[in-house]
């Protein structure tokens, strides 16, 4: 059991992320939670009901992003180390890049679960992890792939990724400068506070209609409804537009991994169950044994370990029992190093109750 189409994982990351953006944004506009002209991405996912969809889709995107980053790391290690036997510092660099990517995926999850309106500073920390570490991951991955030879894809792929890194760096800088710095909401004049009635003439505030039929039941004031009357409105639009373009560039970068991964596949992980020492001694009539799938006569340490009289059938498959008592002293059948070289397909720990004369698999 395995996955032949590994390229689906980066594609799923792209789909879930873009879906979170394009679904929550029109809902936020319809409920009058944000202005139609390019709000911040997080602003469109701060209030219910769109925040529920935004958070769920971004959580799925964070999961698949982490899987994509891991698959990319494993692909590089398998190709350059296990296949080509290349040595060097690139392995440490790849491991470092792996954890930088994990930090970015963790930041996406924080952005999804800690809405800006509820927990502002934690949300900002998650956004910094998502975008900042995501940009660092993209640059590091690009530099690494330029250094490694032979290449896993055509040179045009790496040139496009380099272009995405350059554009992302520009958008990241303009998002910070034109967003929270130059495009910050103006402070109220002296003598006015957020609860003052005169604030309506200073900043266009509206109520968030969370009640039925767009009523103002349980309404609150939202600071996200920007208008052209705001002094910093121009910088605000530049900052929000840059954030959207930054997110799109990063998602295109992740999607590009599908080009190399279309030639890869992964197999199911192996699980080995090992009984702790002395487990069989604590139960009366129990002997620890290892089950080995039927093979030609197996010689372990010069002994024929197959015992036909203990042959069992498991779903039509014949097995033989390797009795731990006939192995040399101190040898645990679960740690026999030559089993895989002897074409043994399965190695599980079982218990045989000599009193009941049956096998218990676990």
UniProtKB/TrEMBL annotation:
The keyword Membrane appears for this protein: yes
Cellular component per GO, a single term: endomembrane system
Alphabetically ordered keywords of this record: Membrane, Transmembrane, Transmembrane helix
Domain of life: Eukaryota
Pfam family, one: Frag1
Domain CWH43-like N-terminal residue range list: 6-263
Localisation: Endomembrane system
Topological type in the membrane: Multi-pass membrane protein
Keyword DNA damage: no
Annotated TM spans: 7-33, 53-72, 93-114, 120-140, 161-182, 233-255
Family statement: Belongs to the DRAM/TMEM150 family.
The name this protein goes by in its record: DNA damage-regulated autophagy modulator protein 2
Protein species of origin: Ditylenchus dipsaci
